[in-house]
Amino acid sequence: MSINATLFVQAVVFLLLVLFTMKFVWPPIAKALDERAQKVAAGLAAAEKAKAELSSANQRVEQELAASRNETAGRLADAERRAQQIIDEAKSRAAEEAAKIVAAARDEAEHQTVRAREALREQVAVLAVKGAEQILRKEVNAGVHADLLQRLKTEL
Q1: What sign for the dihedral angle of Cα 22, 28, 32, 38?
Q2: Per-residue model confidence as pLDDT tens digits over 46-59
Q3: CB contact set of 125 (below 8 Å; sequence gap of 6+)
Q4: CA–CA gap between residue 38 and residue 2 (Å, rounded)
Q5: What's the pLDDT tens digit per position in 114-140?
Q6: Phi, psi (5° rounding) for residue 29?
């Protein structure tokens, strides 16, 4: 055979090989490459979506934390106001009780003063009678002179 015929046969075999490759080998490879490109694109899109969702979730978390902080601060302020109110109420009740106790003590002191005066009047009357006995050098009868002793007590 000649070199031209060999070249021609090799060219035909090469063309058959190219046609076979294009018909049977290339479509599965192209399909696999396209699927891979789609998977990569889908993965990138999912990553972008997840990144956006993460960002929005972080914003929601920050909003919830801010709301929680505000609510906690409000509750603490309410608790402090209530505690102050309870303290003020307790102080007012204590002041009322103290005023009652002081008034009762004053009343008791006044009663004791009156009783002490009465006792002193009795003692002065007894002393006056004894003094009169010594002056008159005779016994004064308390039953006979009851009216006189009563006037003496009231004058004292």
Answers
A1: positive
A2: 999 999 999 999 99
A3: 149, 152, 153, 156
A4: 51
A5: 899 888 878 877 777 777 766 665 555
A6: -65, -45
